[in-house]
Amino acid sequence: MKLLAKWLLSAVALLTVAYLYGGVQVNSFGSAMIAALVIGLLNAVLRPVLVVLTLPVTIVTVGLFLFVVNGLMFWMASGILTGFHVTGFWAAMLGALIYSLLGLVIESLLARLFP
Asked: How far apart are CA 3 and CA 84, in angstroms?
């Protein structure tokens, strides 16, 4: 139940990002659901590999390079999907930052609802 709620709220978060920032476009709620699923899968499978490969750069930048990794995952998802579009790298960086902040709110909310 918690996983389904997180997926739905993540789709709403993507729609919110598209509403707040013009560099990210989502065609419909269905597209947002698929994009949230793809972003989640990329973050679960590919992100750990990228974090390990970029560990020296991450250490030198005191962790700030992880923002770039998040932006790349966001941008990669838009390259894979048709109903989800990000206009460029910097748009992906800002969109991923907003999406991550909304994700923190979602995690906090779900932790209270499903202890």
From this structure: 22
